[in-house]
Amino acid sequence: MQITDVRVRKVAKEGKMKAVVSITIDDEFVVHDIKVIEGEKGMFIAMPSRKATDGEYRDIAHPINSATRDKIQKIILDKYEQAMAEDVEEAI
Protein backbone atom coordinates (compact mmCIF):
# COMPACT_ATOMS: atom_id res chain seq x y z
CA MET A 1 0.00 0.00 0.00
CA GLN A 2 1.32 3.41 -0.99
CA ILE A 3 -0.08 6.79 -0.02
CA THR A 4 0.05 8.48 -3.42
CA ASP A 5 -1.50 11.85 -2.52
CA VAL A 6 -2.11 13.88 0.64
CA ARG A 7 -4.28 17.02 0.63
CA VAL A 8 -4.19 19.23 3.71
CA ARG A 9 -6.93 21.77 4.46
CA LYS A 10 -5.93 23.90 7.44
CA VAL A 11 -8.62 24.84 9.98
CA ALA A 12 -8.84 28.62 10.46
CA LYS A 13 -10.44 28.70 13.90
CA GLU A 14 -8.55 28.27 17.16
CA GLY A 15 -8.73 24.91 18.85
CA LYS A 16 -7.15 21.50 19.00
CA MET A 17 -8.08 20.48 15.46
CA LYS A 18 -5.47 21.96 13.12
CA ALA A 19 -6.34 20.48 9.72
CA VAL A 20 -8.55 18.07 7.82
CA VAL A 21 -6.75 15.74 5.41
CA SER A 22 -7.66 13.51 2.49
CA ILE A 23 -5.33 10.71 1.42
CA THR A 24 -5.25 8.70 -1.78
CA ILE A 25 -4.07 5.09 -1.58
CA ASP A 26 -2.42 3.49 -4.64
CA ASP A 27 -3.99 6.16 -6.91
CA GLU A 28 -7.24 4.21 -6.51
CA PHE A 29 -8.92 4.82 -3.13
CA VAL A 30 -9.53 8.05 -1.20
CA VAL A 31 -10.15 8.54 2.52
CA HIS A 32 -11.53 11.98 3.43
CA ASP A 33 -11.93 13.78 6.78
CA ILE A 34 -8.84 12.56 8.62
CA LYS A 35 -8.27 15.13 11.35
CA VAL A 36 -4.90 16.50 12.50
CA ILE A 37 -5.21 17.22 16.21
CA GLU A 38 -2.84 18.87 18.68
CA GLY A 39 -2.88 16.84 21.88
CA GLU A 40 -1.02 17.09 25.18
CA LYS A 41 1.72 14.77 23.86
CA GLY A 42 1.97 16.32 20.40
CA MET A 43 0.23 16.06 17.07
CA PHE A 44 -1.76 12.99 16.06
CA ILE A 45 -4.40 11.96 13.55
CA ALA A 46 -8.00 10.88 14.10
CA MET A 47 -9.61 8.74 11.45
CA PRO A 48 -13.02 9.72 10.01
CA SER A 49 -15.82 8.85 12.41
CA ARG A 50 -19.56 9.05 12.86
CA LYS A 51 -21.64 9.51 15.98
CA ALA A 52 -23.63 6.36 16.74
CA THR A 53 -27.11 6.29 18.26
CA ASP A 54 -25.58 5.59 21.69
CA GLY A 55 -23.60 8.86 21.51
CA GLU A 56 -20.24 7.18 20.98
CA TYR A 57 -18.07 8.01 17.97
CA ARG A 58 -17.04 5.10 15.75
CA ASP A 59 -14.39 5.15 13.03
CA ILE A 60 -15.77 4.81 9.52
CA ALA A 61 -12.40 3.75 8.07
CA HIS A 62 -9.25 2.85 9.94
CA PRO A 63 -6.00 0.87 9.65
CA ILE A 64 -6.11 -2.74 10.83
CA ASN A 65 -2.74 -2.66 12.64
CA SER A 66 -0.57 -0.14 14.45
CA ALA A 67 2.27 -0.30 11.90
CA THR A 68 -0.06 0.87 9.14
CA ARG A 69 -1.52 3.56 11.40
CA ASP A 70 1.99 4.80 12.24
CA LYS A 71 2.90 4.88 8.54
CA ILE A 72 -0.22 6.88 7.63
CA GLN A 73 0.22 9.23 10.60
CA LYS A 74 3.88 9.95 9.75
CA ILE A 75 3.07 10.74 6.11
CA ILE A 76 0.16 13.02 7.08
CA LEU A 77 2.03 14.87 9.83
CA ASP A 78 5.07 15.37 7.57
CA LYS A 79 2.81 16.86 4.89
CA TYR A 80 1.04 19.03 7.49
CA GLU A 81 4.39 20.38 8.76
CA GLN A 82 5.43 21.09 5.17
CA ALA A 83 2.19 23.01 4.55
CA MET A 84 2.72 25.04 7.74
CA ALA A 85 6.32 25.87 6.73
CA GLU A 86 5.09 27.03 3.31
CA ASP A 87 2.58 29.35 5.02
CA VAL A 88 5.39 30.89 7.10
CA GLU A 89 7.53 31.42 3.99
CA GLU A 90 4.62 33.09 2.15
CA ALA A 91 4.03 35.42 5.10
CA ILE A 92 7.62 36.70 5.00
Automatic annotation (TrEMBL):
<protein>
    <recommendedName>
        <fullName>Putative septation protein SpoVG</fullName>
    </recommendedName>
</protein>
<dbReference type="GO" id="GO:0030435">
    <property type="term" value="P:sporulation resulting in formation of a cellular spore"/>
</dbReference>
<dbReference type="InterPro" id="IPR007170">
    <property type="entry name" value="SpoVG"/>
</dbReference>
<keyword id="KW-0131">Cell cycle</keyword>
<keyword id="KW-0717">Septation</keyword>
<comment type="similarity">
    <text>Belongs to the SpoVG family.</text>
</comment>
<dbReference type="InterPro" id="IPR036751">
    <property type="entry name" value="SpoVG_sf"/>
</dbReference>
<dbReference type="GO" id="GO:0000917">
    <property type="term" value="P:division septum assembly"/>
</dbReference>
<comment type="function">
    <text>Could be involved in septation.</text>
</comment>
<dbReference type="Pfam" id="PF04026">
    <property type="entry name" value="SpoVG"/>
</dbReference>
<keyword id="KW-0132">Cell division</keyword>
